[in-house]
Amino acid sequence: MSTPSNTNDNVDFDENNDLSTQIVKSVAIEVPHGDNRANFDGPGTSHAELLAEIRRLFLRLEAVESQLSRESSEDEAYQGVDYTKAVEVEPTVGSRRMSGRSSLDSAPTKDKEMNGTDGSFVRKSNKKKEKTTPVRFEGSAWNIPLVIGLADVGWMDTCSAAFIVLANLGMQTAFSGLLISEPFMGESFDSNLESARIWRRSVAHDDAYIDLSGGTAVVDACTGLVSRVCAVDGALILSNKQATLVKQINAFLGINKANPLTPQLFQPGVLLCILCILLWTLCVYKEIRGVWLFLEATMQIPRARCTSFQNYAFSQISYRRYCLLLWTYAARAAIAGWLLVAGVLWLARTTSITELMLNAVALNAILAVDEFLFSCLTPIKIQHVIQTLDPIQVKYSRRRSQCETVTHFTFISAVVLLAYVLLVGPLTDTMQEVKRELCGGNQTFVVTYNRDAQLTYGLVTNKAAARNDGQLSTSELAVNFEEDRTRGMSGESSNWPFCIETNLLMEGTLTGNANLQPAAEVMLRNAGLALGYQMVSDCAQLSHMCDSPNASLLRLVCGATCGCTDAVSSPFYKVPAQGCSQACLQDAEDKLANLTCENNETGRNWDTFWNTYEAALTGYYGEEMTQTSVWNTVTSTVQGMLRHGCGYLEVEPQDFVTGVNWCEGLPDLFKPLAHICPKTCGCNGFAADELPSYCPLRCGA
After folding, report:
1. Assessment of whether the complete model's pTM goes beyond 0.85
2. How many domains does the chain have?
3. Is 27 part of any domain?
């Protein structure tokens, strides 16, 4: 019997003869007749069973032909294909074999002609074969809309599948949004630049964090915090963030101890970062390319009002389902593109080479959410339908394949190149700047700030204990350093045997001295910094701050501007503890040596003294005087002094707040009022050697 067919499952194609490219037109099966039937029939095999077997074979061949007819574009033969060769088919029935032979019908004479030598047919048409490639739909939650409502499942499975699609969309959208958010990305590495500057100018050289080998201030060797951080000292208990940052920069740029500020030619972090960005780009591009192929495959299915789905194949698809699939592909591509940008930014901000690979792998897990949902939660019958869908043939020419290859390489190369130029390259430059801020310059010194004297003192570290070059050893420097850090303003003002402003900053006897002039200018700048002014070069710039409680250093440097050399200025702050040096105060007394020992409130800032009493006491105690319980008493005293002058000192001889005698003054705040009211304070009638210390020298007989 003969049945039309292209091929069947039992045909053994010979690859060497290219039978896989031949079109099988028919299969002939020879059935034994007559006496041979007895030989064919074996034990337990009847004629009816044989016919049933032949019918089953016929049905199988017919199904194969139906399937291959849809793939005829792939089964067209090339020129020179032999159509005369036969294929043997030997089905087995019981323990016997039935031999048969299939022959090829002659090909159409329109496209073939007989070869005279071997009798084969040769294709005459010069039309090139049109190539196609099968596109299979992967097991993904994104592909559930393709078959939802078409699979033979219950309403519970259908609702579950729809929920999985929405959950997949929500999860990937949420991941994409969080990945690009500022809390997740964190601050840019550039923010470390300013913090490094602040750390280096404040904590890094603070003497409070010095490593003292002997445990005391007098040591033979000491190391500052900056030196320990830049050496990545494992015993650090402070500035661990800076030490970790230095360690990451060294590993990322390949910096070694020999050249602590110079990156090496081979930079492990840069190479690994580029490789991780390339890996992530490939992962995302695989997703994008898959979306494009699925879109092309979907466009090959004819559209109609209703979807036709039989034997796991689409004959046509409805417009609504087609639009749903297009929306799904667009959402999938948008999420993939967003993840590509966010992932590249995140990887380019990762400065720890140990975390780069982990971050790249973690990013890939976001793309696999749809596969996890499909494998774990999708109903098994829907899984089966998607996995057994017939592939859809998409036409691919050689030219198109080459164009796509160029596109693939161009896209991947462009992403990686832009990531390096815009992100990784600037990151390495910023890392070098941060390293220079943290560890550049001189590391071998520490400083301390004397709040009382408002001066900063330094100590050189990492020096030999014994010096033969005449310089101080570390031990000697440490002793001087300890004295400087604990000395108050009274001691600092006593160190200057002359008035700084009149002798150095003005046209004085020491102006231009190579040793003293720079020191005075530094002190002036420090005075300005203590009051919030930078790069002060003249005392007149700060004259309005002279009566500030925090201007003790300013009064030391600018004694003439702040009234320390004026005997008739307000007594407040005209004491060594508030910055006026003894030399400046002596200059003021020398100007009044010829005056008589009489009271003289006029012209001596008597009113100024009492009007500034509240502000001066508030600054001295650090508490608002108007809020205290004694303020009413203080107010009455001030009003009495302003109204009656020096005579009121006999009524109120003692300050109610400080407890000191007005005539004797308060050494920490104001000079004795005996300089204004010597007669009321009883400074008359004393010999020079018996004169009370608070009385002016001119009162001594």
Report:
1. no
2. 5
3. yes
